[in-house]
Design goal:
Layout (H helix, E strand, L loop, with lengths): L1 E5 L3 H13 L3 E5 L2 H10 L4 E5 L7 H10 L6 E5 L4 H10 L3 E4 L4 H15 L6 E4 L2 E4 L4 E3 L5 E3 L2 H12 L7 H6 L10 H15 L4 E4 L3 E4 L2
Parallel strand pairs: 1-2, 1-3, 3-4, 4-5
Antiparallel strand pairs: 6-7, 7-8, 8-9, 10-11
Helix pairs in contact: 2-3, 6-8
């Protein structure tokens, strides 16, 4: 899952980003509203964590602009004041959920995962496809024979994204963008290595290769 964190407080960013990475998110950061709005316009994210009290452009303005542009990416709004009026303004502008500061990181991640589950039509933290069950909390998977597989961070991110998009063709570039964070070298050729690792775990036919296009999970 590719996540944008729009937050100007570096202490919050430095605390939150590692926790989100451990939870399986490829995190990009914007430190003000203008940069956040630009990244939202130019890039694709699975979810956005948006502080309302941003410099240069407020989070409310960023949210209003993306909804006017028909961008339906789930947004979790952060607010320092946590007044009922600010919560109402955020929800009316198109926020999917809100969280007041200070917050527990575990609650933020749980709310974020709930938003993403709704986006992809999932009702629990377990994702199932073609006999494979992936538990997002433990980052482990069960194969069709009941064997348990402890996944590496990259394997988990890659498998989760594929399982949330069954039947869709995913290019190497698209997969790398949802696996690697902004400061990491995004070598799309490495994706093939991890695809083969997943095939070794769950069978050669589990992931199809479409020459010149990319990969997709079998039906």
């Amino acid at each position: 899952m590719r996540l944008l964190l729009v937050e100007d407080d570096l202490v919050q960013v430095n605390n939150l980003k590692p926790a989100l990475s451990r939870a399986g998110y490829a995190v990009e950061v914007a430190l003000d509203g203008i940069d956040g709005a630009f990244k939202i316009r130019e890039e694709e994210f699975d979810a956005i964590v948006l502080d309302l009290g941003l410099p240069k452009k407020t989070g409310l303005e960023v949210l209003q602009e993306m909804r006017v542009a028909k961008n339906n990416t789930p947004v979790l709004v952060l607010t320092a004041r946590d007044t009922w009026q600010e919560r109402v303004d955020g929800l009316k502008a198109g926020a999917d959920d809100y969280l007041g500061k200070p917050y527990h990181v575990e609650e933020l991640i749980a709310r974020l995962e709930a938003l993403i589950r709704r986006k992809f039509g999932q009702s629990s933290s377990d994702i199932e496809h073609a006999g494979v069950r992936l538990n997002q909390d433990s980052q482990c998977a069960l194969d069709s024979l009941g064997g348990q597989h402890e996944l590496t961070g990259i394997e988990f991110k890659l498998l989760r994204y594929l399982m949330l998009n069954p039947g869709k063709i995913m290019s190497k570039t698209q997969l790398s963008e949802h696996v690697y964070e902004e400061e990491q070298l995004r070598d799309s050729n490495v994706i093939e290595v991890y695809i083969n690792r997943l095939r070794q775990r769950f069978g050669k036919e589990f992931i199809e290769t479409l020459r010149g296009q990319g990969y997709r999970l079998k039906g």
